[in-house]
UniProtKB/TrEMBL annotation:
Species whose genome carries this gene: Niabella pedocola
Record bears the keyword Manganese: no
Transmembrane segments: 6-25, 37-63, 69-90, 116-136, 148-169, 176-194, 219-236, 257-274, 294-317, 358-377, 383-402, 414-434, 446-464, 504-526, 532-552
Signal peptide start and end residues: none
Alphabetical keyword list: Cell membrane, Glycoprotein, Ion transport, Membrane, Sodium, Sodium transport, Transmembrane, Transmembrane helix, Transport
UniProt lineage: Bacteria, Pseudomonadati, Bacteroidota, Chitinophagia, Chitinophagales
The protein, known as: Na+:solute symporter
The keyword Nucleus appears for this protein: no
Database matches in InterPro entries: Na/Glc_symporter_sf, Na/solute_symporter, Na/solute_symporter_CS, Sodium:Solute_Symporter_SSF
Coiled-coil spans in chain: none
Compartment(s): Cell membrane
Reactions it catalyzes: iodide(out) + 2 Na(+)(out) = iodide(in) + 2 Na(+)(in)
Superkingdom to which the source organism belongs: Bacteria
Amino acid sequence: MIDTIVVVVFSVFILLVGISFSRTGRNLKSFFAGGEAVPWFIGGLSLFMSFFSAGTFVAWGAIAYQHGWVAVTIQWTMCIGALVTGLYLAPKWKATGNLTAAEFIKMRLGTRVQKSYIYIFTIVSVFIKGSVLYSVAKLVSASLGYPLIPVTVILGILMISYTAVGGLWAVMVTDILQFVVLTAAVLIILPLVFHETGGVQQFINKAPDHFFDLVNGEYSWGFIFAFALYHIFYIGGNWTFVQRYTSVDSPKSASKVAYLFAGLYIISPIIWMLPPMAYQVIHPGLSGLDAENAYIMVCKQVLPAGLLGLMLTGMYFSTSASANTALNVVSAVFTNDIYKGSINPQASDKKLMFVARASSWFFGIFMILIAIGVPYIGGIVEFTLSVGAITGGPLLLPPIWALFSKRLSGKATIYITILSLAINLLFKMVIPLINHYKLSRANEMLLGVLLPLIALAVYEWVAAKKKRVSPDYLQYREYKQNKKKEAAVIDEEEARLVKAQNVFGLKMIAFSLAFMAVLMLVLAGITSKGGTLVATIALFVLAGSLIPWRAAKKAGTR
């Protein structure tokens, strides 16, 4: 009962935070990009939490339980992807001057390519984030004993409400808060888990053979290599993450966003994956879809009442952050690039804000329907990895290539994308039905990332031999020059409002952290074990709330 109360109290608080940002969304730039003046460390933490979700606990937790350390190795590929992004891709995205990746695609590769990508990206994003919603619904359902489908619907509606009301700053405040919640929760869990196993040495001694190998089972070095390539494309080109690079003030800040993400993904996979690994020793024998419950089962076993609710809330809102970000971007693309770009170019800011919020609800409801269907298509691990293998390279790599290439044309982009998607789908869905031949996990991922890469490289080589420059690139270069002139004109009133929005956002982060610290202190007083540890962490969180508060004061005096 205490856990349910904690979940409800925290959820209501987060929704109120979202409502508090409803008046800051004056136009598309403020609603979807934070006025392009978001502090880089806020953007970096938000990017980390947007990538992070309950899928981390359910999908990678299942792999950690079954195969051990390889779950950490898989997530380290995300660090590699972020480093490459920080070096080369994030500053390039910021330098385009575009609000969304879709806007860049339109200007660089043409309206036809943009529309094709919008339709495919929207469908894929909703499918992926539907699976993410399934993950957190399953966690809440399994831990609190409520039916899966009603939990999915209720959590989905709460998620959509938050995004539709608050926009990007509301999403980012949630991101920061959940980063602190989950870090605090896992620091509480780890000593309790190792106590349950009889100590760290006992855990190591009792673990299965090869449990601490860098690769294990179907997750071979070939898969790790392909997954690292995939994450360069995904972190550097996913429209959701591109928004984090374009919402800061400069290319240098965009790089810092990616570097912070990379640094966090060196340490966090070890911390996150140790509890389900330890549960293999505590309770061996889970398999199939049951292994997806490993994380929440170990939490239920070691956490006292109240702290389980805090962990669940952290898992839910970290997932909410991930799905909220996707909804925010899909809604931005629809509003900015379809409605404003093609349907109603003269729409007022008020009309565009209405469309932005209405489209968040439309895509969010579709996300809920996908989440309900995940158990019927093989579970979260199969779904997540297969969707990534099929769509990641064909959709994400061509726009990244266009950031650097003078020769890639819109027509070639369409052909390469469609051909790559078709071949990936052929090997994933058609050939196994015809002759029962199925690619290994590694080969499936390698095909997905190498096929479009080779196709683009061959096209670039042929165009270079012919010394051909794409007409699309020449038009884009002219557009970019005009864009720079427009950007040089400073709207002082807009700058003042953006500054006020960012100061308010920092204050809300400080207030939210203080609220969470007080809640943890209350739980420390009533918990049956770990009370001193919980109270200590709560005091650190309370002290940490002073950092954004001082940053807000400093920003307000400039």
